[in-house]
Amino acid sequence: MKSKSKTIFSSIKRPLKNRKNGNKNTLSNITRDSTIILLKIKTVFPFTLFPDTIVIDLHKLNIIRKVFFLTYRRNSINHEDILNITVATAPLFATLRITTRFFSGKPIVILYLKKSEAILAKRVVHGLIVAHRKGVTLRDIEKETLLKKLEQLGSSE
């Protein structure tokens, strides 16, 4: 009978679902989940001198507003704190409005986004909100499949 030696590297190579406590929200699992970027979009350059960036991961939405060269302001919003997200489209661009429970009812407005990217971001965030409220585990799903499923879930209008 062979004895299996456990090393640090052998535990890394195993898939997450086979690990002990793999389904629990441990600190390492949450940290790993926050490094998975589902979607990253930017405003269009000629219309905004310093383009803003929206980064969506499994737990939060980051809005990075560039103010000047090498200067930025970052807002991180948990999906559970988003009350409403809307997209207003025009012939060339779209505007994303995000209402949260912490910004005094005043929505966060991101102008000059590409229409397709703004609509995709709205659907993905809405899908993440619904999935979190229903208690769905998103950890074991491949990124491309997860993005398609979240878009499908968030597109029910």
3D structure, described in words:
The protein is an alpha+beta fold and 157 residues long. The protein has one domain: Pleckstrin-homology domain (PH domain)/Phosphotyrosine-binding domain (PTB) (PH-domain like), CATH 2.30.29. 29% of the residues lie in helices and 32% in strands. It contains four helices and seven strands. Helix 3 crosses helix 4. The radius of gyration is 19 Å and the shape is globular. The N terminus is likely disordered.
Q: Kindly report the average pLDDT value.
A: 82
Q: Which range does the strand content fall in?
A: 25-35%
Major sheet attributes = 4 strands, antiparallel
The CATH class assignment is Mainly Beta
Terminus-to-terminus distance: 59 Å
CATH architectural category: Roll
Oligomer: single chain
User: Which topology does CATH recognise?
Assistant: PH-domain like
- CATH homologous superfamily annotation: Pleckstrin-homology domain (PH domain)/Phosphotyrosine-binding domain (PTB)
Query: What level of helicity do the residues show?
Result: 25-40%
Calculate Rg over CA atoms.
Answer: 19 Å
Number of helices, counting only DSSP H or I runs of 4 residues or more? 4
Number of DSSP strand runs: 7
Which structural category do the helix and sheet elements fall into?
Answer: alpha+beta
Instruction: Trace the largest sheet across and list its strands.
Output: 1-2-3-4
SSE order in H/E notation?
A: HHEEEEEEEHH
Query: What count of structural domains?
Result: 1
